[in-house]
Amino acid sequence: MVERRRRLEEDGGPDGRPLARQVARLSLQALPVLAAEPLYVLVDTAVVGRLGAVALAGLAVAGVLFAQVTTALNFLSYGTTARSARLHGAGDRAKAVTEGVQATWVAIAVGVLVLVVGQIVARPVANALGDGGAVADAAVGWLRTALFGAPLILVTLAGNGWMRGVQDTARPLRYVLAGNGLSAVLCPVFVHVLGWGLEGSAIANVIAQVIVASLFLSAIARERRTHPEVSLRPDLGVIRAQLTMGRDLVLRTAGFQICFLSATAVAARFGPASVAAHQVVLQLWNFQSLVLDAVAIAAQALVGAALGANGADRAKAIAAQVTRYGLWMGLVFGVLFAALAGVLPHVFTGDPAVLAAVPAAWWFFVAMQPVAGVVFAIDGVLLGAGDAAFLRTTTLVAALAGFLPLIWISLAAGWGLVGIWTGLSVFMLVRLVAVLLRTRSGRWAVTGAPAA
């Protein structure tokens, strides 16, 4: 039995490569795609920042709004990966790609809706978040231009989803880096050289998004040349199933967003130093989440393929091994951030008050690294199994019963960052217990094709 399990763990998929090599390949190619957008935002911020405080504040307001929409719709990527991976594991590449086609139809429809509604609500929402004056005007100008890229971004998410499902993470890497690289070049030209100001940044974004979305659409066209059975017609049954899974993932994402927005709002009420310290540690949390997300994407593709090939035992073995990878990565991150406790915060700020506030959050952040490593890895396993409803429910329970109450109690009791990060820790520990019990039960390892 032990020898059989070892063989299952070493042979993670149909290509015969050892599991560790497959996870490394998929993770390392997925990581730059995940990091591309945050890195471009930094470039965009640096370029726009030279226009002055009003333009930068307008970008901050509009960028947050736009990011919330695209983040909430990332089910087009994660949900499509889970469904395509099963079909890929069953040896039916044409149907796996067809899942991507259906997700692309959803992306176009939802993207057009976001574009239309966004144009209508841009002004009142920007006024609510901005000052109702120059900052709001700047935000509206950027947002109304950037919204034309919404359908294109969603097409890109769908394309990433089906390509990850068929374990092709090399082409999305090239596509996204090409688009973001072009945008990084065009942004300073449009903003400063041509004098288009803040809106020049949004135009550069849209041009890049046209390129990337076109590359993903051309990939479907190439697949049709080798697999003519790939259907381009909308399939309402498949679309309905995708939207059902999407609903669960949207609710799960909403749980995260509400928690972290609430945490920032409460931190701000303890003064500038507290919210600045919270922001420093939170951005580091987001950074390490990208690395752990890359491993989760690899787990998602491999588990989905195993279940599609009717390999429940293989899927369980992959889950066990990927969980160990997540634990070791979390331990390494924990040791690294503990060692850098006296150095890394100084990279972000030199303000003595902020630096004095950082330790209240820092050691919670360090302690949660192994927990996060395991939770993110198992999230990928369960997403690959299509167990989105379970992840939705446990995330919302952890948020409503753990994170949110402690955040607001910390405000009333004056606990500051200690209370906020205690809330985050409880949130992660509840999720850890839930996903470990779920994985151990084996009820997630349902084999066969995804429901139509």
TrEMBL record:
Keywords: Cell membrane, Membrane, Transmembrane, Transmembrane helix, Transport. InterPro entries: DinF-like, MATE_fam, MdtK-like. It is a multi-pass membrane protein. The chain crosses the membrane at residues 26-43, 55-76, 103-122, 142-163, 175-196, 202-221, 249-270, 290-313, 325-348, 360-382, 389-409, 415-437. It is found in: Cell membrane. Pfam families: MatE. Belongs to the multi antimicrobial extrusion (MATE) (TC 2.A.66.1) family. PANTHER family: PROTEIN DETOXIFICATION 44, CHLOROPLASTIC (PTHR42893:SF46), PROTEIN DETOXIFICATION 44, CHLOROPLASTIC-RELATED (PTHR42893). This is MATE family efflux transporter. It comes from Pseudonocardia ailaonensis.
